[in-house]
C-alpha cells in the first residue's frame, strides 16, 4: 500500500549513476513496498522521480506477455523523465523504496529551478548513453559477457569498494528480464564465473565478490 505524501528537506545525491540534486524548496516523498507500482506505462507523466532509498526497476510488458526491464535505478538516480506527456515504461519497487517526486510542469513549463533543469538534462544524456550500451549488450554479447558487463556496471554504480563485495539488490528473474536471458542462464553463468575464479558468491547467493576485474573487463570488451 502506498504511504501518504509528506514533505522532506533537501537530500543530496548519494551514489553514482543518474543524479539529481533536490531543489531548495521541499518536495513530496513517497514510500512503496516490494513489487508495488510507482507508475504504469501510459500514465500521465506529471512527475519525475529521484530514488531516496532502495531500488526501482523500469519495465515494459511485450505483446506476448514477456517482461523487458529497461533499467535499475539506485539511490540518487532519477527516472520517469519523459519527452511526451505519458510514461513509456512502468516503474516498480524492487524492495522497500522511497522516492522523491518533482512536478514536471514546474521545471519544464514555468522555467523555475534552473540548476534542477540542468541536472535533469545531464541525467537524460547519461540515460541515453546507458540505453545505447544496453542495445549493444543485447544485440552482440553472449550470456557470459552480458553477466560480466552487468556486474561491472552495478559495482561501479553501487561503489562496492576495493574488496569488490556487491550485494545484488534484485532477484535472478529481474536480472534475466534485463539482460534478455532465462533465469537458468543467469544462474549457470554466475556459477561458471565462480568456478573460473572471476567472482565469489555468498552462501545465500545474494552477494558477489568481484575477484578478477581484469578478466571480467576482458569479457565485457
Write up what this structure looks like:
The protein is α+β, with helices and mostly antiparallel strands. The protein has two domains: 127 residues, Jelly Rolls; 80 residues, Winged helix-like DNA-binding domain superfamily/Winged helix DNA-binding domain (Arc Repressor Mutant, subunit A), CATH 1.10.10.10. The chain contains six helices and twelve strands. Strands 1-2-9-4-7 form a five-stranded antiparallel β-sheet. Strands 3-8-5-6 form a four-stranded antiparallel β-sheet. Strand 11 and strand 12 form a beta hairpin. Helix 4 crosses helix 5. The longest helix is centred in the middle third of the chain and has 27 residues. It is globular and about 50 Å long. It starts with 5 loop residues before the first strand and ends with a helix. The relative contact order is 0.15.
Amino acid at each position: 500500500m502506498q504511504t501518504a505524501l509528506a514533505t522532506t528537506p533537501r537530500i543530496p545525491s548519494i551514489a553514482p549513476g543518474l543524479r539529481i540534486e533536490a531543489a531548495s524548496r521541499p518536495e513530496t516523498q513517497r514510500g512503496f513496498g516490494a513489487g508495488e507500482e510507482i507508475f504504469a506505462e501510459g500514465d500521465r507523466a506529471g512527475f519525475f522521480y529521484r530514488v531516496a532509498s532502495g531500488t526501482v526497476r523500469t519495465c515494459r510488458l511485450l505483446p506476448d506477455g514477456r517482461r523487458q526491464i529497461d533499467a535499475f535505478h539506485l539511490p540518487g538516480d532519477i527516472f520517469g523523465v519523459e519527452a511526451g506527456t505519458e510514461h513509456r515504461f512502468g516503474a516498480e519497487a524492487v524492495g522497500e523504496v522511497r522516492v522523491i517526486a518533482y512536478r514536471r510542469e514546474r521545471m519544464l513549463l514555468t522555467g523555475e529551478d534552473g540548476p534542477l533543469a540542468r541536472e535533469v538534462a545531464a541525467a537524460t544524456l547519461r540515460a541515453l548513453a546507458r540505453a545505447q550500451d544496453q542495445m549493444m549488450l543485447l544485440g552482440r554479447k553472449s550470456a557470459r559477457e552480458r553477466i560480466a558487463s552487468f556486474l561491472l556496471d552495478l559495482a561501479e554504480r553501487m561503489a562496492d569498494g576495493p574488496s569488490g563485495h556487491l550485494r545484488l539488490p534484485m532477484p535472478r528473474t529481474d536480472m534475466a528480464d534485463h539482460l534478455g536471458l532465462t533465469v537458468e542462464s543467469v544462474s549457470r553463468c554466475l556459477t561458471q564465473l565462480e568456478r573460473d575464479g572471476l567472482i565469489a558468491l555468498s552462501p545465500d547467493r545474494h552477494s558477489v565478490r568481484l575477484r578478477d576485474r581484469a578478466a571480467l573487463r576482458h569479457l565485457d570488451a
